[in-house]
Write a structure and sequence with these properties.
The structure holds two protein chains of two kinds. By secondary structure, chain A is an alpha/beta fold. Chain A has eight helices and 13 strands.
Chain lengths: 261, 344
């Protein structure tokens, strides 16, 4: 691994949830890293801890142990403001933005860079425009968010994260509600952003075959709660893909890059 | 172009505000010729002492009271709707107004029948009423914050607000049963809602507090817009969500408490006006929504004020008018929620 491109790193990270006084650890001892210019897909069963892990990486939840570092600095010790300039987020949460135009929504991505009242100057507007061009949503710039299809909406949310101009973008199941065409488009878009804009992009997904085809690296959460990382071809060759659903009656089929009976 | 729509809306709402204010000035239970009103306003005096007093100490304070109350309640509603991510939130439906009312009732009864009229002549007694209202509204908002962390459902939060209203009104009734007859009478007439309760002497405090809180809300447009995306996105945009929420609820509490203390628990305006503003502007962008909500709120309250004082059978309580305006609008919104952009 080329260490000089590493921008994001976890050290002995443990994530899970607190249930009253007791702690339930889902994943522990994680030493993961993200590099600029690479698209990483996080795969795992439902309940494996994908969202929990992402919430710790985006500082929405305190980790149970260990640290998350960006450029060597502990993310959880930074101010909200500083973090907002490092990590852009795309999540599946419902938003109330139906009556905003796409341009207004993408403009919200400039908030970490604007002043007290959030007014956009010409440079901000130029960045917003470029983010919409890069995400392929510029044709809908003046449309209401409410009028967009699910796939277009996701592109707008990605444009919003791009306008934030963070070196890292983390996406929680960005393709979850999309049809297959929009899923592939979204994945291709994220791949382009990683490769051409030199972003470190991490996404969680249920799309095994598209992740194998388009991601530069996979983080697999196995049935026994290990996180195994590697390039898709290495992981397929090592038979690691079968450790994803060990408790289920399915097997990974390398010829179709997907699971079958 | 949405910017043009914004300018047109603001100009129209401002013109309406001027017209309604003039209507409040000219029409009332006593007929005063327009010429005399002009004379009074220009300082010449009409030669009729009663008319001078009616215009300067009754109608003008009422116009200011109503316009500020409408703006204050409407902004409270807007902040509550965005904070709780709930289009049906408002100061009266969530029980904030009744909390303030309970505070008022407790102060009145604690001070006994010593208050002449609803507010005493002394500054101290009406400051006590104001503090009571602030504390009452604050307690209800604290309860709402606590519950909103536990129950995630919007409907449940509304039901909790309604339960809080029931609880406070039962406490008020229990208090009434031990109160003096005069106190009860005062409380009941206060409950009708009216915009004539702020005297010229009280106006600086009433107007000052409301205007400061309105300015405060206008300074919060950036975090308010971030909150449209929900707490997680707002955090990701660098917003300190819990601090922002507390500031917004403090502004809401102050606005609702001041209006409730002076004008009674006025329903519907806070719930309806933000929707009128969103629908006429076609946006949820708070940098446009806040000014439009302030103006539209002032307009609606002045409309209620005009209707209230121009009945042939004496004064109609404000709270008898607001539902007539408010209920059809709420029903329209509920029935059309699939078509209205900001629900989608």
């Amino acid at each position: 691994m080329n260490k000089k491109n590493t921008i994001f790193q976890t050290r002995e990270l443990a994530v899970g949830y607190r249930n009253g006084k007791s702690e339930v650890t889902l994943l522990r001892g994680l030493n993961l890293s993200l590099e600029k210019g690479k698209l990483v897909a996080l795969l795992g069963q439902n309940g494996a801890g994908k969202s929990t892990l992402l919430r710790a990486l985006t500082c929405d939840e305190r980790p149970l142990a260990g640290t998350v570092e960006v450029n060597g600095k502990n993310l959880h010790d930074m101010s909200q403001k500083d973090r907002s300039r490092l990590i852009g987020l795309v999540s599946t949460e419902r938003i109330q933005a139906g009556a905003l135009t796409v341009t207004e929504l993408v403009g919200l991505g400039r908030q970490p860079h604007t002043g007290f009242l959030g007014r956009l100057d010409d440079e901000d507007r130029q960045i917003v425009h470029q983010a919409m061009v890069d995400s392929g949503i510029i044709g809908k710039a003046n449309d209401y968010m409410a009028s967009l299809s699910d796939g277009e909406r996701q592109k707008a949310m990605i444009a919003r994260a791009l306008a934030q101009q963070t070196p890292i973008i983390i996406l929680d199941e960005p393709t979850a509600f999309l049809d297959v065409a929009s899923r592939i488009e979204t994945m291709r878009l994220l791949q382009t952003l990683a490769h051409d804009r030199s972003k470190a992009v991490l996404l969680s997904s249920h799309d095994i075959s598209q992740s194998l085809m388009l991601a530069d690296e996979l983080w697999l959460i196995t049935t026994d709660r290990q996180v195994i990382t590697g390039t898709p071809s290495d992981l397929v060759a090592a038979g690691t893909m079968d450790r994803l659903f060990e408790n289920r009656d399915i097997h990974f089929n390398p010829s179709i890059l997907d699971y079958s009976f | 172009m949405t910017y043009r729509r914004y300018v047109v809306t603001i100009v129209a709402l401002t013109l309406l505000l001027v017209l309604l204010a003039l209507a409040c000035l000219v029409f009332g239970s006593v007929d005063i010729p327009v010429g005399s009103i002009t004379d009074i306003l220009t300082g010449k005096g009409s030669g009729n002492k009663a008319w001078d007093i009616i215009i300067l100490q009754s109608r003008i304070p009422m116009i200011a009271t109503a316009a500020l109350a409408g703006a204050a309640l409407s902004i409270s509603g807007l902040l509550l709707q965005t904070t709780f991510n709930n289009p049906l939130a408002g100061p009266s439906i969530l029980g904030v107004s009744s909390g303030a009312g309970l505070g008022v009732a407790i102060v009145i009864l604690a001070l006994g029948g010593s208050l002449g009229g609803f507010f005493g002549e002394s500054m101290g007694s009406y400051m006590a009423v104001l503090v009571g209202a602030l504390l009452g509204a604050g307690v209800v908002l604290a309860v709402l914050i606590a519950f909103s962390a536990i129950v995630r459902s919007n409907t449940m939060l509304l039901i909790i607000g309604i339960l809080v209203s029931y609880l406070t009104s039962s406490v008020v009734q229990l208090l009434n049963s031990v109160a003096t007859e005069e106190g009860v009478h005062n409380y009941v007439s206060w409950g009708f809602g009216n915009f004539s309760g702020v005297s010229v002497a009280q106006m600086p405090i009433y107007a000052g507090v409301i205007i400061l809180a309105l300015i405060g809300s206008a300074l919060m447009v950036k975090p308010l817009n971030a909150l449209l995306l929900g707490a997680r996105y707002a955090r990701n945009l660098g917003i300190n969500v819990s601090r922002t929420r507390n500031i917004l609820l403090i502004i809401t509490g102050v606005l609702t408490a001041v209006v409730t203390a002076f004008c009674g628990p006025i329903g519907f305006i806070g719930l309806v006006v933000p929707h009128i503003a969103r629908m006429s502007l076609g946006t949820s962008n708070h940098s446009r929504l806040v000014p439009a909500t302030i103006l539209a709120g002032a307009d609606i309250a002045l409309l209620c004020a005009v209707a209230s004082v121009n009945s042939p059978h004496g004064i109609i309580p404000i709270n008898a008018i607001t539902p007539i305006i408010g209920v059809p609008i709420i029903l329209y919104i509920i029935l059309n929620r699939r078509r209205i952009q900001y629900f989608n």
